[in-house]
Amino acid sequence: MAEQRNPHPKSNSPLDPPVRRGASHKEGGTSTLPFPPRRGKGLGGGDRVVLSVDNLRIHYATPQGDVIAVSDISFDLYEGETLGLVGESGCGKSTTAYGILQLVQPPGYIVHGSIQVDGTEVLNLDEEELRKFRWTGLSLIPQGAMNSLNPTMRVKDQIIDVIESHEGKQTDKEALRERIFELFQNVGLPNRIYNMYPHELSGGMKQRVCIAMGVALHPTVVIADEATSALDVVVQRIVAQTLVKVKDEIGVSLIVIGHDMGLLAQIVDRIAVMYAGKMVEIAPVENVYANPLHPYTQLLIDSIPSIKERKPLKITEGITHDPRNPPSGCIFRLRCPFAWERCAEVEPPPIYVEDKHEVACHLYDEQFEERRTNALASLANP
Ligand SMILES: Nc1ncnc2c1ncn2[C@@H]1O[C@H](COP(=O)(O)OP(=O)(O)OP(=O)(O)O)[C@@H](O)[C@H]1O
Ligand code: SF4
Ligand SMILES: [Mg+2]
User: What is the pTM for the complete model shown?
Assistant: First the structure.
């Protein structure tokens, strides 16, 4: 859902009508939103787009047909922003990350799309240009990154490898050591690990080394794929905070992929929700938690356990359709309690709700206001 700068300049209040995106952008209705989103305290991101993903589609070829892992998604990432990418297992989060970095491995392939970083079209880069662009334009802290550190190489040599692979042989060894110490300081690592091997470090330390490598060349955009999920909860939070602190210090933009909605709530500016390869909602974090609009986002938020309010967990089964053969119309309709005929016939386009908030669900189309009101009533009185 690539937002455009101020697409409806006079209607950026939460109480203004939702506006259909795309060609029909200006067809605003007259009613107010059913669930007026709370305006947040202000986003961490600026207004300059640093990464623009447009209509990206990625398949994995299998003997039974192509698995549609990422299905025509569009979104923007703003300068200095931290964007959380969530959705259940298999919805395409990692594939999106690999796609952005041009690291999709066969049998995966990019069917179409555009990925622009600071105006550079990543899909047009050749191998050598891409090699240079990784770590400097875009960098990835991959899922399970800490296990991908080379066990036979000292920490310092792994970081030096990243630096020298882009900047050539560094002759001033003292300056190089100082630079690595500065990186250690950025990510909260003690200098004594300089000469250590990965097996001598705790999980949290290894993850910090991966963060240090990811930001070593000050990329424009860092993507952290489940960077903390293998750690215990306390260390998870500390490492996540480190990630955001480093992001602010170094001035990069960040995409954090994760499952822990509680953790993400504390560290991101906006959340993008994926379901079965589609992006169904993207919104400022306050809106997502206070007023989730898409029925799937509502399910996600309802599934956050609470100690204070012990209620039965709303657990429903995962993605129900065959990813090679998605249902017609709305991707979520086989699990959606509000689905009606239109949902099987027409794919819901992204609908602009307010600045930096879009949702892909027919309920937010002006012409279905009554249906939306009834849906809201049924949520209030289940
Ligand atoms: N090599 C492959 N061959 C066939 N299908 C694949 C392959 N890799 C991934 N997929 C499919 O692509 C879809 C998206 O997978 P992906 O790993 O991107 O999901 P994810 O959201 O990152 O999941 P998780 O939260 O478990 O990490 C899934 O349906 C998955 O089964
Ligand atoms: S478009 Fe229809 S099926 Fe899809 S989420 Fe909205 S109401 Fe549910
Ligand atoms: Mg993944």
Answer: 0.86
